[in-house]
Amino acid sequence: MNSGPDWAANARQLQQSLEEGWQRTLETFGGGKPLTAFAGLGEMTNAPPLLPQLSFSADKLAALQQAYLKEASELWNHGLSGVAGGDRRFTSEAWGSNPVSAFTAASYLLNGRTLLGLVEAAETDAKTKARLRFAVEQWMAASAPSNFLVLNAEAQKKAVETRGESIAKGVQNLLNDIQQGHVSMTDERQFEVGRNVATTEGAVVFENELFQLIEYKPSTAKVYERPFLVVPPCINKFYILDLQPENSLVKHLVDQGHRTFVVSWRNPDAQLESKTWDDYVGEGALEAIRVVQEISGSKQINALGFCVGGTILGTALAVLAARKQKPVASATFLTTLLDFTETGVLDLFIDENFVKFREMQMGEKGLLKGQELASTFSFLRPNDLVWNYVVGNYLKGETPPPFDLLYWNSDSTNLPGPMYAWYLRNTYFENNLVKPGKCTVCGEKIDLRKVDIPVYLYGSREDHIVPIGGAYASVQHLPGKKRFVTGASGHIAGVINPPAKNKRSYWTNDKLPATHAEWQAGAQEHAGSWWPDWMSWLKPQAGKQVPAPKRYGKGNAYQALEPAPGSYVKAKA
Question: What is the value of pTM for the model shown?
Answer without folding.
Answer: 0.87
